[in-house]
Structures are given as C-alpha cells and as structure tokens.
Amino acid sequence: MKTKSTGSAGSAEKSSLLRTGAEIVVQSLIDEGVDTMFGYPGGVVLPLFDRLYDAPIRFIIPRHEQGGCHMADGYARASGKVGVIAVTSGPGACNLVTGLATAMMDSIPIVAITGQVRTELIGNDAFQEADTTGITRPVTKYNCIVKDVRDLARTIKEAFYIASTGRPGPVVIDLPIDVQVAKCSVDGPIEMKLPGYRPKTKGHSRQVSMAAEAINKSERPVLYVGGGVIIANACDELRALAQKAHIPVTMTLLGLGSYDQTKPESLDMLGMHGSAYANYAVQECDLLIAVGARFDDRVTGKVKAFAPNAKIIHIDIDPASIAKNIRADIPVVGDAKYILAELVKEVEYRERKEWFAKIAQWKQKYPLAYDRKSTNIKPQYVVEQICELTGGDAIITTGVGQNQMWTTQFYKFRRPRQLISSGGLGTMGYGLPAAIGAQIAKPDATVVDIDGDHSFNMTMTELRTAVQYELPIKVCILNNGYMGMVRQWQQLFYNGRYSKSYLANPEYAKVAEALGAVGITVEKKADVDKAIKKMLAEKKPCVVDFKVEREENVWPMVAAGKSLNEMDGLDLLESMA
Amino acid sequence: MKHIISALVENKPGVLANVAGMFAARAFNIDSLAVGRTEDPDLSRMTIVVVGDDRVLEQVRKQLAKLIPVVKVQDFAGQAVVARDLMLITIAAPPEKRAEMLALIETFKGKVVDIGQKSIMVELSGPEEKIESFIEMCRPYGIKNVARTGTIAMPRQEKSAGATEGAGAE
C-alpha cells in the first residue's frame, strides 16, 4: 500500500490509491455529472457527509426527507437530469417512501442513497435500523444494498443508468456505515453488470409502417399524448407529426406542455376532469394514436366503453404498459423520439375538414368555463390571471385535487417541463418542494406553485428551505378552507356530508412571514391582479393566500363507472359559453 | 387455467423477494414457485405456475421481464414440455396395511425413504397429475405430512429428423 503526498497526483499514481466508500460515492456522483443534490444527515451517514462537506456539489438540506425527495423530483422534471438525495437509515429512509412512490408512478429518474447500520448489525433491530430495501422495493425501479465496498462504484454507475434509461424511475442504494468507511482501490473503467436490463430504443419497422398506413387511412384520428413524450424529449417530433398529417392532439396531466395549447390542433387535457371536446373526440375517433401514455383510469373512464370506434396504435417504451388496460391493435415498443421521427417520414397530409369542423363545434359549445360574473374570487380566475401575468411562460407546480385540476384547465402550457405535478400517486404537499427543486434547476425561471390550502399545509415547513437558499419561488394558495376535491365528491355522492374534509387553517401570509418569506392575503376580486404582480416582482419567496369561493366544483367530470362521453356539468358549461 | 413460466434470474440476495413482491403487488395468483441454481453460478432458474387467462399470463410475463434482476422469461403456453414435481409424503402405515401400501407405492414408482413403527415416508416425482393421484390414493390410509417442491419444467426437443434448425422467415 503506497501512501501519497497531497498535491498533484499523476494519473498513473492515482490508480493505486485506496479510497473509502464515502470518497467513492462522492467521486462517482461527480463522474455522473451531479452538481446539485439534496439530503439530510444522520448517524450512519456521517462518513459520507464528511466527504460532502467540501465536495464541489451544491447541497440543499430540506426540513424533512419527504420534502427533499419531492425537491429532487421537481429538479429532475425541470432539468431532465437525475435527481439525487442522500439520507440516513431508519426514519430517514422511511421518510423517502412517499417521495419515491410519487417518482415511481410518474417515471421520474431519482437516485437515493440511504445510510444503513453496520453490516454485522443488519437484521438485529439495531438503533435506527429499517429494512430499507424491503420497504422501498415496491416503490422503486431498482434497489440494492452494498455490502462490499468493491461493488460500490459499479453499483452507483448502474443506479444512474437504470434510473435514467428506458422508462425512468427511482433507484435506492442502501449503504451500511462500515462500507462507507472501508477502503479499496478504484482503477480503470467501471463495467456494469446488468444482464437482465436491455432497454429497447428503435421500434420494429414493420409496426411503424402499419401505424403510418393506419394514420393515412383514418378520417377521424386523435393523438393521445402522455408524459413519455416529454421524457423522450420528442416534442419536436410530435409537433411535426401532428402538423404534417393534420391530427388533433390531446394530452394527459403529465403530457401537458408537450404540444402548445395555444395552437388550434390542441384539444387540451382529456379524462375525468379533461375538456369535453377532448373526451368527445376520443370517444368518436376512428384511430387513437397513444404515445408515451398508459391508459390510466383517470383518462379512460369506463374501460369497456372507451374509444369504442377506434383502432388503437400504442407507442411506448415499456412493453408491460401495452395491452395492460386497453387493447392495442398496433403496438410499437421503443423510444418515442425514434418512432415518431420514423412515422413523420411515412405520413401524408389529409385535410379531415369534417372532423376538425366537428371538433370546433364541440369547442364552441363546451368551453372550459366558470361564472365570470361572480363578485367572489373564483379559483379559476386566479389561475387565468397567473397565466396571463406570467405570459404563459412560468414553470408551474401544483398540489393535488381541485387546485391541480383548475391549473390544468386554465393555465395554457406551451413547452415541455413547464407543468410539474404529481399525477399517478396524487401526492398532496408535492407542490412547494417540487417548486423549490424546479427553481434550483432553472434559476432564471419564474416558478409558481399553484396550491390548495390543505395540500400546502402538508409540507409548508419547506418554505424555510426556499428562504434559506434564497430561491424566489412564488406560492399561490387557492384557499377555500376545504380539502376541495374530497368535499366535491362528498357533495355529489355522499349527500353533502363533509366528513373530516376541513381543517382550521392558519393565516398563511403570517406563516410565510414567520418563515422569512413575503406573505400577502387577498380577499377581494379587485385585488387579485395587483397581488399577482407584486408577487412576481418579489425577489424573496412569496406566498399569496387567495380566499377563494368556498364551494366551487371542477367541471366537467366523468364520475366513477361512467364513460368519457357521460360527463357531468356540461349544461353548466354550455350556459356559461 | 394454469400456465408454466420459466425465468432465468440473477443469483443474488433479494431477487426471490423482488419477484414474490411483484406478484403480490399485482395480485397475480401463483400456484407454485420453485427456484434453484443453474450450471452458471451467477444465474438461478425460477419455475412459476400461474393461474389465470391469456391476458393475465401476458402481463405476468411482461412484468417479470421488467424486473432488473430477471434476465430471460420463457412462457411455455402451447409448447410441449416435460414438467415434474417432487414430493415427500408421510403416510400412516399400520403393519396389517403395509403390504398393500408397498404395492401401491411400487405401482406409482415411488421410493420408500423412511420407515417407522406407525408410518412410512415416500419420495415420488412426476407430472402434477401423478402426484395428485397418489395423494388421493393415500388418503384412506391417513396422510401425516406432505412437502412438495412445485413444478419445474423444460421444453421438449424437436423430434422429426428432417426438421432444419432456424428454417422459416422468423
């Protein structure tokens, strides 16, 4: 074993240097291009955090590991990079579970390093011990525990590869403290050993041709686009396809922004609270082209009655998603970027005059609307004004429930990675930490969390994190004093018995001030615009508490068990058209 | 309907838990699961008998293939296979019944692997129907204990002499 003097180390000498597990982790992160990470220290990660003390990696400490995980998630969605978080064993790791499940459901790349008790104590109910790999297995794309320091560098490389390729997802590496301290030599290039993981990229050319042929023949096609198109960075190819062949585009919650909603081909969002024109188009189309979407139950409504007249093309990188919920007449497995590019070459323009005329009729008859004449502050109005005053250009995060649905309906997204919202898991409390992560990823962007009062309450402690790191995020609370979506369902289906769907809220503006942010309260409609402008001009994090209409409902709505064309609230929308 | 799936998986700790956990989470109905090492020390083979229709089988196959430590998945539906289950069974055997029991065991080509004052232990291997038939035949005597490995299977070999390997467009 050679001892080296500090100072310039030639590469030939470097290779025989012994490194500790903690040093290997930090070096591996740097090699993977990590310049920002999140985390919270603890007993069994002291060696790792000692190495992080002066590492060239920007480190953000949240107030709670769940907040940190959502921050890493928001960072990943905004930047397209892998979000990284390091926490301690036991409670630290357990606090990640909701954040990991959130990322898993939405296919977001995260690498989480969790400390673990010494290898010889594992399984002994040691202090702060938890079976992290057992607990996180169902909510991760992959996880493992590293018991030998010689496996560490390879494991980290594999983790980043698995997290960021194919259908992305969160990966957990459990790292016992003695492995962080153990030493080994790290030399030469690191080879991954993943015989069971070979993500497919190019689609089968015959399938692509069949799809192109079906598109060219169709009279009433619809492009149904999900988050996969954004993950694949395939929005240019999508636009080319929609415009070359002349096909209308509807998007899922996670797909919003993949196609410019201000363009005429956009049908906006479909599904349970999607627009009527999107839902009717899907139900009456003769060809449904699904790209990077998984026919989630929020989208399909009653499965047996979904798109009854349509042939279905399903383009997806995950073969398990194809034919899982809905039949696929022409499945194409592969990366959307390649497949859409190939399709664009083979499709032809068709005017489809009647189809677009029908769609225009639906758009005119059932626009997304609300009572503009009301003197109360309508939450939809607040969202519209935020859209207007940010030029439709801000990065928007949301809570879950009504606030989230109104954001999808009244903020018109034009670019990918603009809307950052918990879709699959629907995690209340996601909005604020995700906004923090997004702001860190995009320091020059305007980032606004459009949140619900109960959603915000779940993770509002992270406002202090925004203050500490001087992140000028904006939070707009659509404060109706209820768990809005729960209350809506209780109103519609449980005879108005509002069981446990409200908490006594604090004055959020005062909470914001106490945490070091700017707080504004808005109680009159006339003050809405002024408040938003003031908020946007603030250099510090700013929370605006809008006291909105208390019992406003999201329309249209496809109730449980109904098909997409059996929407409620259409008469209301028609009357406000 | 029962289907046999054979999966080649990495021989690493946690892989069995990974597969079992996935089956539980997706509510797939497993009839049996047998796993053991192969000639390659880094790989194990899992043989899983799944209960369900073709749609379920397709999802089982795909979800299994999706797991990182799963290297290859073979679905034996519609194929000719050799399928075997191994059982150890302890049957009550009073002295006056022993002779007829031994005749029964011989008929099934089982092996007596242990004998006691009041019972005998039999080892029997074969296709599932043979195992189940033997269990039924033993019931009147009184079954003390049963342990089975679950099914393992391998595809049968090509039989016709004129068949050329790799012929055909696919």
Q: How would you explain this protein's 3D organization?
A:
The complex is a heterodimer of chains A (577) and B (170). Chain A is of the alpha/beta class and 577 residues long. Chain A has three domains: 15-185, 3-Layer(aba) Sandwich (Rossmann fold); 205-365, 3-Layer(aba) Sandwich (Rossmann fold), CATH 3.40.50.1220; 379-555, 3-Layer(aba) Sandwich (Rossmann fold), CATH 3.40.50. In chain A, strand 2, helix 3 (46-52) and strand 3 (58-60) form a beta-alpha-beta unit. In chain A, helix 4 (65-79) packs parallel to helix 6 (97-106), helix 10 packs across helix 15 (336-346) and helix 17 crosses helix 18. Chain A is globular. Chain B is α+β, with helices and mostly antiparallel strands and 170 residues long. Chain B folds into two domains: 2-75, Alpha-Beta Plaits (2-Layer Sandwich), CATH 3.30.70.260; 82-153, 2-Layer Sandwich (Alpha-Beta Plaits). The longest helix of chain B is centred in the middle third of the chain and has 13 residues, at 54-66. Mean pLDDT of chain B is 92; it is low at 165-170. Classes of the chains: A alpha/beta (577), B alpha+beta (170). The interface between A and B is medium-sized, with 18 and 21 residues.
